[in-house]
Every structure is written in C-alpha cells, then in structure tokens.
C-alpha cells in the first residue's frame, strides 16, 4: 500500500505542475486545438487516477482488515483501463498533424492513420469486456490486495491483449511521428540550428517513446513470465500510465514554450522597431549673451 501511495502522490504532484506549465505557456489559439484539449483531459484523468489510488491506499493503511469500497475499486479499474487509450488518441492526432491528408497520398494516409485507429477501437472493446468481467467479480473484494488480484489475474486474456496492443501502438505512432519530425527538421533551413533540432527531437523521443516503451516491455515481461507477480506488474503499470501522460504533455509544453518565447521575442522586436522609428528632436542652444 505504501508503494502505491508514493507512486500516486509523486506522479499526481508532477501532473499538477505540468498542468500549470501547459496553461501558462499555451496561447489562446493553441487552447482551441483538439490536441490541447486532449492533453488537459489526459492530465485531469491522470490526477483523478492518482487521487483515487491515494484514497484507496490510505483507507487500506488505516483499516487493514476493513472491507474496501467496491465503487472506489471499480472506478480505479475504469481509469486504469481507459486512461492509456485516451493518451494514445493524442499520438494519433500528432500523426494526423505531420501526415495531413492534403499533402499525403490517400493510400498512405489511410494506412498511417487507419492502423492506430483500429488498434484504439480494439483496445476499447477489450477494455469493455475486461470491465464487465471485473464489475461482476468486484463484489468479492475484501481488501485492496484483493482488488489488485482480481484486476490482474482474471481468466480472460484482457491484460495481455491490452498491454501488447499498447506496446505496438506506442512503437508504431512514435516511430512514424519522430521519423517525420526528423525529416522535416533536416530539410528545413530556418534560423534554428541543427543541434537545437536534434536536442528537441531527443527530448521528445525520450519522453514519448523510449521510457514508455521500456516500461511497457518490462510490465508485459513480468506479467507474462508469472502472473502471480501481479503486484510488481501493477507497480510498473501505474508508473507507466502516469509517465506516459507526463511524456506526452511534456512534448506539448515544449512546443508551447517555444511558441510563447517566439511570441515574446516578436513583441519585443516590434517595440524596439517602434522606438527606433520615433522622430528625434534636436535641441539647439540659444546664443550666449555677452
């Protein structure tokens, strides 16, 4: 219980800071974009998951032999099943932004966007089947440990299917997105240096691709090796869910911060230009009296 409490408190605090940073650096036009709205929803969903997790673990610590609220356990199961799919929708929107239908061949566009959309639909169907089965057995709960047991050791292969599809979708979307971003950056000749482009690409790839991919492989390997180690797999899963949200939002904040800095730079340049074009007045000295 203490480990889950620490994960929920730490990741929830980081998500709150990310929400403040996202709201601060975003512009009015950016706040109206679907990717911004989905980022905010992802943060709020992650914070809600962290709050429910902390409530559940505090209740377990205070009442070790008490019966846990089944509604809380069911809510935790719903957020755990749905949150990763919501984050994947942000990755699909990013693919759509770098592979727009106006400049992408129709067949290529359908393949690039259609595959992750089908994966998301399959994950949603799998989550529904999983939650229906979980709701039927949630009445058997006697403790938080029992909720984790039912959550992970169901006879249905929903957990393996979900984590496998999550691993595939993350690998697919992130690889295509990073390839396109690198291609556009290498072909552009703007004022941004190549080292700066590589630095940006590095941080986006690390936060959105490398760490979530590693965590997905680890949690799937632990659970596939021995489902009795469901607690360790749950640790990794909770960290992976929150870290995936943080990574996706981090990339958005990175872009928003760059746009915010460019806007401030242009405003400063405009004020400097206006000051330089103001008419100057010459002061002539009156003749001195002798």
TrEMBL record:
<keyword id="KW-1133">Transmembrane helix</keyword>
<feature type="transmembrane region" description="Helical">
    <location>
        <begin position="74"/>
        <end position="96"/>
    </location>
</feature>
<protein>
    <submittedName>
        <fullName>Uncharacterized protein</fullName>
    </submittedName>
</protein>
<keyword id="KW-0472">Membrane</keyword>
<feature type="transmembrane region" description="Helical">
    <location>
        <begin position="200"/>
        <end position="224"/>
    </location>
</feature>
<feature type="transmembrane region" description="Helical">
    <location>
        <begin position="108"/>
        <end position="132"/>
    </location>
</feature>
<feature type="transmembrane region" description="Helical">
    <location>
        <begin position="36"/>
        <end position="54"/>
    </location>
</feature>
<feature type="transmembrane region" description="Helical">
    <location>
        <begin position="239"/>
        <end position="256"/>
    </location>
</feature>
<feature type="transmembrane region" description="Helical">
    <location>
        <begin position="6"/>
        <end position="24"/>
    </location>
</feature>
<keyword id="KW-0812">Transmembrane</keyword>
